[in-house]
Write the structure tokens for this entry.
Amino acid sequence: MGKIDDKIKELGYKLPEQATPAGNYVPTVLISQSNLIYTSGTISKAADGSLLTGKLGENLEIEEGYAAAKQTGLNLLGSLKASIGDLDKVKRIVKLLCLVNSTDTFESHPLVANGCSDLFVEIFGERGKHARSAVGVASLPNNVCVEIEMIVEISE
């Protein structure tokens, strides 16, 4: 177990197993020439496998969206670990795209996305700071409240 795994455990988090793709795609793609790994969009799913559903601005509060984005971050790390074997290989979280299932009047998408961003900085420190886009969408698969994808630079 690496230092990052120890840090995750110390913080009281548990990474889920990598999710099985729901379609004709893979969870991650490594661009070996640049040491960049791209994840597929990962939905908000609780540790027990249940979906975290709802629409921000309608039946979910910012705090609930934040918690869902944080859990989605753990799901992303579980998938990343399954792909690269050791989270200590993470040189930098490069970019996040956070999609928030929200009403057309909801304007706090970045506050929801902070759940994932804060988690990555908590775990990786400076290496967890990243560029990010947080946008609202009319709907997401199975009415989940958040879907996030990321780009990560890893060491060899």
In short: The chain has a mean pLDDT of 95. The first helix runs from residue 3 to 10. The chain has one domain: 3-154. The beta strands are 28-31, 36-39, 42-43, 90-101, 131-137, 146-154.
